[in-house]
Write a structure and sequence with these properties.
3-methyladenine DNA Glycosylase II, Chain A, domain 3, TIM Barrel, 3 domains, alpha/beta, eight-stranded parallel sheet, globular, 443 residues, 17 helices, Rossmann fold
Amino acid sequence: MGLTGLDIYKQLPKKNCGECGPPTCLAFAMALAAGKAELSACPYVSEEAKENLAAAAAPPIRLVKIGTGDEVVEVGDETVIFRHEKTFFHPTGIAIRVSDAEDVEAKLAKIKDLVLERVGQVYEVDLVAVSADSGDPGKFAAAVEKVAQGTDLALMLIGGVEEIRAALDIVADRKPLLYAADAENYEEMTNLAKEKGCPLVVKGTGLDDLAELVKKVEGLGHKELVLDSGNRELSRVLADLTQIRRLAIKKRFRPFGYPTVAFTTKDDPKREVVEASVFVAKYAGIVVLKACEREHLLPLLSWRQNLYTDPQKPIQVESKLYEVGNVNADSPVYVTTNFSLTYFTVEGEVEASKVPAYIIPVNTDGTSVLTAWAAGKFEAEHIAEMLEKTGVAEKVSHRDVIIPGYVAVLSGKLKEVSGWNVIVGPREAAGIPAFVRERYGGR
């Protein structure tokens, strides 16, 4: 268990200067003990105190980096149990498993095609996990070499000591995640991970065994670790992941202060993705699965993106002039908010209407139309300012602007402050195609 707030307070300078943020040293000590402040925020703390308080100042879950260059995957460094308490920071790494006993190149081609887009967000997997199922270190090394040559994604190597040693001769510079150190091989695996500077998975046979094994690996001088409780039954894995997270954050139990990895077990891809979704939510740092079809991965990646969005900061698009289709001087001009889901819903329906148009999303801090209007963020003055700022008047020969039907009340004021003719559009974006047919016909 970590130090208490009073333990920390005794080692602070007690200046009560407030330069760290909290008004007093005691308040700062309490925040530090709760993982809500960093020791570096205090400009007067002594070097001796820094050394003594290192454990308390460290994040409850260590940040571990896998890979190199632009494809580094960062996992861990989380500080809360529930994202509404603050936010989640490092999205679960999605690893697609490739066996050295299958057609590696065919599987890799599917993985490389897994770049998906939804509401302006680009989704892709993070790691390729190559597993030594053939029992042949040479064949495993050859499979790893094919994967390394075929993708820049971070790598995970799954196998015994000899298989991983053979593969590291090829990809050690890629800093792959090594799986796994267990009670039988932890000394060899730890020394190998240390020698090559690679992160290492520690695999137990339950939480008690895992904690003891982590201490042994730490004792050998390696702390770039990822944890696997060893269980595979869904309910047991869920319980283990939750316990590890709670003990690390609430109790500051240092052996569990590392990110975790979970493996799916279902053969049906749909069931496998449901299983993976549970692990993403509670609280895997990495999920390894076999499914690699676009239609299976998009729901999982969308779920991950939603979970790791700051709940206090909605997804937004840039507030500027957007062109949909081959616009011209007669193209309609739509106004909406910059909440990502609202904007892309409107954009999709404008595309469906087959009439090219301009869309201006007003900056409402990422809130929807009615929410923004109720908060005073989607007012006539704001819309008029955006019409002027975007220069859309220079691109069209008319002065018609279409506003959402839910804020028809703004039409009079907007006409007064902007000089534009205000057209009240449909309440729902789904009504845009019918609205366009009725107003613009086949133009």
